[in-house]
Structure formats: structure tokens, C-alpha cells
Automatic annotation (TrEMBL), chains A, B:
Pfam families: EF-hand_7. The keyword Metal-binding applies. SMART domains: EFh. It is found in: Cytoplasm. Signal peptide: none annotated. Keywords: Calcium, Cytoplasm, Metal-binding, Repeat. GO terms for cellular component: cytoplasm. SUPFAM superfamilies: EF-hand (SSF47473). This is EF-hand domain-containing protein. It comes from Polypedilum vanderplanki (Sleeping chironomid midge). GO terms for molecular function: calcium ion binding; calcium-dependent protein binding. Transmembrane segments: none annotated.
Length: 182, 182
């Protein structure tokens, strides 16, 4: 779980630690961090680097000027964001295996207020990890939760009567599914 | 546009060329190609490597045994698939700039049978290329079209009366948006 002094299960706190971690991640000393540099610094509970998808997603969430990089100020926000997700993941990883299995994911979503069918939970795991198909890592968990949050928000905006069913036109549907809700 | 003998605007044909290209791409000589190896061999019309997203998507489409790699047989199918998309892209890239601009994308989708609003076409470009926001490259085009095909198919399955509007429940909606239609 640890990597060159950074253990995501023991989040660092305080500005100096953020600064130290930033300097460590910023391999080329450019004062900016890109997705590749972030990826090289983050190891999930299965001993693998965070996925391209997770790193690209997280950089783009905090990259306000769309340069594909983040500076130290944006990095501090990202750092806190990742630590929040790690705490959340850790709480749901009840057997402390470094992965979330089906029953743990089911309990996690229930606690977040979702009532998903067992079949759907299984779909989420297979989709997140098409290779193993039985468990998801912390980076897969972050990607999954961020997407679910986003799509749930888009659905709720259209579910004005809160029936759990919406009527939606093709272009609107496509816009949401493609990630550009309009 | 060209890369070490491979010019995607002049698609190779015949098995020997596929074999030669496979050997060239398979840097570690494993007899299998992964997304990283594919990425190193494909250059878009803007002189950049195909994106991670495009390469991962294309490998996973042809990786039937879910190893994250494809063999020569799967590669031949992928090779033909990419060439089909390149021909398609070339036909829509009317000014032969190596990119598709807004008016060209609008014409492309009209020819594919879609009637998207100008605003939506603009969304598609900004979403595909958040940095430039004015044009899309061939790898961005492939990713966009594959996703639109998939989501259109899911929508049509539910639009049984062909009204262009569907009623959809939360979990079903989420399943499609997350890419695992159920």
C-alpha cells in the first residue's frame, strides 16, 4: 500500500506534508503535476498503480485552467479529496483486505442511500474490474462513485416528482451518458 | 501522420502487412499486444499518440479472453476495424486537415442518420477535446462514435414506439450511463 514514503492508508496532514508530497510527485520539477506523475505516486491496495482513468479523472476535476496539469494549490485540494475517498474506502473495506468485495460494496451503497439490486452490484464490480470480476480497488471505487454521483445528480434534476422514473429525449439522454449533461 | 512505416491514411492490406505491423507493434515479442504497445504505434493527424482511452477501448473490444492483450487473430480484426474508422474519418475530414471541425462533424452525424442540434455538436467537440475545444482528432472521433453507437442502441431498445422519448427507471439509466446496460 505504501510507496516511497506515502501510505494512502495513513493520510498526511498539514501544508508541509502536502508540499513534500507535491515535490516528490513533481518528478520533472516543473511546478505542475500531470496525470502520469500522479499515477507514479499512487498505489492501490492491490499493489498496482492507480489506473489511467482514475488519474486523468482526478487531474481534470482540479485542473481549472485546462492545461492537463495542476499546481500546488489545486494539488492540495486534490490531496484532501483523495484522502476523503481513502477514508471512505477504508470504512467500507471491513475485512481490511485492500479491496471491496460484493457484500462490502452492497453495504457501502446502502449506507450512501442507494438501494441497488444484487444483480446491479455485481454489474458494477464486473464493469469496474473486468479481469478479476470479484472485487474493486480503491482507484476503481473512486471512479465508480464519482460517476454514480454525477449520473444520479443528472437523473434527480429530471425526476422532479421523485418517482424514480424519468421521461427523457434522445439528445438529452446521450448528453448525460456521454458525460456532458446539457 | 506516419509512424515508422505505418501511415493510417494509407491503410495496409493483406495478411503479410498485418503480420508485419503486428511484429512491429509487439515490442516485447510476447506474441500479444497490450494497450500501451498499440498506443506507441498509432499517431493521429495532429502528430500525437492515440489517447489511453482510445487504445484501452479498442483492445478491450477485441480482447475476448479478457487478458488485457490481443493475439494476431484478434489484432487482424482490430486492424481492419481501425482502417474502417480511418476511411470514415477521412471522408468526413473534407479539408484534409487531419482533424474534424464543427461543420464537418455536423455533416458527419447527419450522414450517419443523426439530427443533432448545433449546440449538441459543440458539446461533443468540447467534451472530446476539452483543451482545444474546436476540432477532434481521429482517435477522439473513434471513441465518440463507438460510445454514441452503444448509447443509441440502448436508447432504441427502450424506444419501442420510436417517439424519441423514453421512460426509464434509475437503476436502468445508471446501468446504461455507466456502460453496463442491463
Amino acid at each position: 500500500m505504501a510507496y516511497q514514503g506515502y501510505n494512502p492508508y495513513q493520510p498526511a496532514t498539514g501544508n508541509s506534508q502536502v508540499q513534500n508530497f507535491f515535490t516528490h510527485v513533481d518528478k520533472d520539477g516543473s511546478g505542475k503535476i500531470n496525470a502520469q506523475e500522479l499515477q507514479q505516486a499512487l498505489i492501490n491496495g492491490q499493489g498496482q498503480q492507480f489506473s489511467d482513468t482514475a488519474c486523468n479523472m482526478m487531474i481534470s476535476m482540479f485542473d481549472q485552467d485546462r492545461t492537463g496539469t495542476i499546481d500546488i494549490t489545486e494539488f492540495e485540494r486534490l490531496f484532501n479529496y483523495i484522502n476523503s475517498w481513502l477514508s471512505c474506502f477504508k470504512a467500507f473495506d471491513r475485512d481490511n483486505s485492500g479491496s471491496i468485495e460484493e457484500s462490502e460494496l452492497s453495504a457501502a451503497f446502502q449506507q450512501m442511500g442507494f438501494r441497488f439490486s444484487q444483480q446491479f452490484i455485481n454489474f458494477l464490480i464486473v464493469m469496474s474490474d473486468p479481469k478479476e470480476r470479484t472485487r474493486i480497488s480503491v482507484d476503481q471505487f473512486i471512479v465508480l462513485c464519482v460517476k454514480i454521483q454525477k449520473f444520479t445528480e443528472a437523473f434527480k434534476q429530471r425526476d422532479t416528482e421523485m418517482t424514480g422514473v424519468i421521461k427523457i429525449a434522445f439528445e438529452d439522454f446521450l448528453g448525460i451518458a456521454l458525460g456532458c449533461s446539457n
